[in-house]
Design goal:
With about 200 residues, this protein is of the alpha/beta class. The protein has a domain of about 120 residues: NADH:ubiquinone oxidoreductase Nqo5 subunit (Beta Polymerase, domain 2, 2-Layer Sandwich). Helix 3 links the parallel strand 6 and strand 7. The longest helix has 14 residues. It starts with about 45 loop residues before the first helix and ends in a 31-residue tail after the last strand. The N terminus is likely disordered.
C-alpha cells in the first residue's frame, strides 16, 4: 500500500462552521425577516419649532439635551429638576394641563422616565425626559401637578421599581403584593412557556 499525500491544489480544511476567511457562513448568522429598519429623522415642523422655542424659554438652563419630531419637541432634564420643569410647563406659557402619558425605558445602565404633556387649549404636546439610576431608581412624584400620575407611577413602580418621592401610595397596580422583582426590567428572567 502506498501512503496518500495531501493534494497540494486542494484547499486546507476549515474548522466546522467557518468559511475560509474565518467568518460564520450566512446560514449560521441570525436572520432578520422583514424590511430594513429606518429610523425617522428628528425634524420639527413649523408648529414644533414654535413649541420648542416656548419650551426652551420655560426651562432655560434646565434643558441639557433637546430634539423632536413633527410638532412634538422633547427635552432632557436632570432627575432633580424634573418636578420643577414639569411645573413650569404646566403653569407657564405652555399651559400643559394634561399628563397625556408617562412611561419608563430600561437602558440597562439607567432608566429613562418619559413624560408626555399636553396643552388642551392650544393642542400642543411636549416631552420631558429624565434619567434615573438603574441601581436605586428614584424621582420626585408629579401627582401634585396631575392626579393622573398616580396610576402611571404605581404601574412604573410595579414594572421597573422606580420610587416616586412624595407619592405615599405605590401599592401594586398590575402585580400581586407578594410578587418578587420588576418584570419591565431587561434583567428580569423570562421563562419559556410550559404546559401544566
Amino acid at each position: 500500500m502506498t501512503e496518500q499525500q495531501p493534494n497540494a491544489g486542494a484547499p486546507a480544511e476549515q474548522p466546522e462552521g467557518q468559511t475560509p476567511s474565518g467568518e460564520q457562513p450566512a446560514a449560521a448568522r441570525p436572520v432578520r425577516h422583514g424590511p430594513p429598519i429606518a429610523v425617522a429623522e428628528e425634524v420639527l415642523d413649523e408648529q414644533g419649532v414654535a413649541t420648542a422655542a416656548v419650551l426652551a424659554k420655560a426651562l432655560g438652563s434646565m434643558a441639557i439635551e433637546k430634539g423632536g419630531r413633527d410638532d412634538i419637541p422633547w427635552v432632557r432634564v436632570e432627575a432633580k429638576d424634573l418636578h420643577r420643569a414639569a411645573q413650569r410647563c404646566r403653569d407657564g406659557e405652555l399651559k400643559t394641563d394634561m399628563l397625556h402619558l408617562m412611561l419608563a425605558v430600561d437602558w440597562v445602565e439607567h432608566i429613562q422616565m418619559i413624560y408626555v404633556l399636553y396643552a388642551t387649549a392650544t393642542n400642543r404636546k411636549v416631552i420631558l425626559r429624565a434619567d434615573v439610576s438603574a441601581e436605586t431608581p428614584s424621582i420626585a412624584t408629579v401627582t401634585d401637578l396631575w392626579m393622573a400620575a398616580s396610576w402611571y407611577e404605581r404601574e412604573t413602580h410595579d414594572l421597573f421599581g422606580v420610587v416616586f418621592e412624595g407619592n405615599d401610595d405605590l401599592a401594586p397596580l398590575l402585580l400581586y403584593p407578594e410578587f418578587e422583582g420588576h418584570p419591565g426590567l431587561k434583567s428580569f428572567p423570562l421563562h419559556d412557556y410550559q404546559e401544566f
